Q: What sequence folds into this?
């Protein structure tokens, strides 16, 4: 896909606030799929304050916490933090993340 960054390095995009147009350049760090799906929980203007990024190819989700997208490979992810996020937002996130998402679901 032209113009898409498929960096194999773990991405914790600190310093980059999650804006909707950032999805234009993001690919899944695990399977390199593009485009990714944005699930907004809380947003203001074009900035996503809380939500998730979902890969329709490998079914992985990546959290957006305090406007920061956390896109790390499975082995570097914080299971406790992710489970707390899923519990807190279980009524706001789609079933594909809550019940079937990788690497963890409820």
A:
């Amino acid at each position: 896909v032209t113009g898409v960054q498929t960096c194999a390095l773990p991405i914790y995009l600190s310093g980059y606030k999650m804006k909707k147009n950032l999805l234009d350049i993001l690919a899944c760090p695990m399977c390199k799929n593009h485009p990714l799906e944005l699930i907004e929980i809380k947003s203001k203007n074009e900035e996503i304050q809380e939500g998730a990024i979902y890969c329709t190819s490998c079914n992985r989700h990546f959290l957006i916490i305090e406007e920061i997208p956390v896109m790390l490979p499975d082995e570097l992810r914080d299971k406790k933090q992710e489970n707390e996020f899923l519990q807190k937002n279980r009524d706001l996130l789609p079933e594909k993340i809550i019940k079937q998402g990788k690497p963890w679901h409820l």
Q: What stands out?
A: The radius of gyration is 13 Å.
